[in-house]
Design a protein that fits this description.
- InterPro entries: E2_motif (IPR046849), E_motif (IPR046848), PPR_At4g14850-like_plant (IPR046960), PPR_rpt (IPR002885), TPR-like_helical_dom_sf (IPR011990).
- GO terms for molecular function: RNA binding.
- By secondary structure, this protein is mainly α.
- About 65% of the residues lie in helices and about 5% in strands.
- It contains nine helices and two strands.
- The longest helix has 17 residues.
Length: about 200
C-alpha cells in the first residue's frame, strides 16, 4: 500500500470528524484500523482502538489482527487474537482468521482447535483466489479448483516443483502437533501454493 494513500485516508477521516456532516460510525473506525494495519502502521492502528470511548468491537480487533498477520508481528498480535477469540462473532471468518494467526505463529495446537471448531459448527472457509494477467487474458485460480482449462498442466508443474524442492532438501517440520486433517504433504503443498 502506498504511504500517500494511507495519509490521504487518515486526512479524510480527520475531515469527517471535524466536518460533522455525517455521523462517524463503528464501520469508519474499523476501516481506519484496517487501513493502518495493512500499511504496517500497527502502533497507529492499536492507538485508534485505545482512544475509543467504548470497548472496540470484534470487527476492529479482527482488522487489527489481520494487520499483525500481514506484517508478521505475532507477539503483539496475541492481544487482538485473545479479544477476537472472546468477543468475536461465531462465524467462519473469525475462526479462519484465528487459524491463520495461530498457524503463522507456529502454535499448531491452537490452529488445529480453530479448524476443529469450524468443522464441528459446520463452517466452511471461502476458498482463496488469485489471478494473473498474461497477454491481455486474466487467469483465475481458486484453491482446489481443477476446472481451469490448463489445470492438468498447472498441477503437473506444481508436482514437478514439489519433487525439485524435496530433491534439494526441503523438508517440512515433522514436529507439528496438528489435527489429522493436516498432513505433512498437505502442508508442503500449501507451501507450494504460497510460492505461486
Amino acid at each position: 500500500m502506498q504511504p500517500g494513500l494511507v495519509e490521504e485516508g487518515l486526512n479524510l477521516f480527520d475531515e469527517l470528524l471535524r466536518d460533522g456532516s455525517i455521523q462517524v460510525r463503528e464501520e469508519h473506525y474499523t476501516c481506519l484500523v484496517d487501513l493502518c494495519g495493512r500499511a504496517g502502521r500497527l502502533k497507529e492502528a492499536f492507538g485508534i482502538l485505545e482512544k475509543l470511548a467504548t470497548n472496540p468491537s470484534a470487527s476492529k480487533w479482527g482488522a487489527l489482527l489481520a494487520g499483525f498477520i500481514d506484517h508478521h508481528n505475532m507477539d503483539t498480535g496475541k492481544l487482538a487474537a485473545e479479544k477476537l477469540l472472546k468477543e468475536g462473532p461465531d462465524d467462519a471468518g473469525r475462526y479462519s482468521l484465528l487459524w491463520n494467526f495461530f498457524a503463522r505463529s507456529g502454535n499448531w495446537r491452537e490452529a488445529a482447535k480453530m479448524r476443529i471448531k469450524m468443522k464441528e459448527k459446520g463452517f466452511k472457509k471461502q476458498p482463496g483466489c488469485s489471478w494473473i494477467e498474461v497477454g491481455n487474458m486474466v487467469h483465475v485460480f481458486v484453491v482446489g479448483d481443477k476446472s481451469h482449462c490448463q489445470s492438468q498442466l498447472i498441477y503437473s508443474a506444481l508436482y514437478d516443483l514439489h519433487k525439485q524442492m524435496k530433491k534439494i532438501g526441503y523438508i517440512p517440520s515433522n514436529d507439528l502437533n496438528v489435527h489429522e486433517d493436516f498432513s505433512i504433504t498437505g502442508i508442503l503443498t500449501w507451501d507450494i501454493f504460497r510460492l505461486i
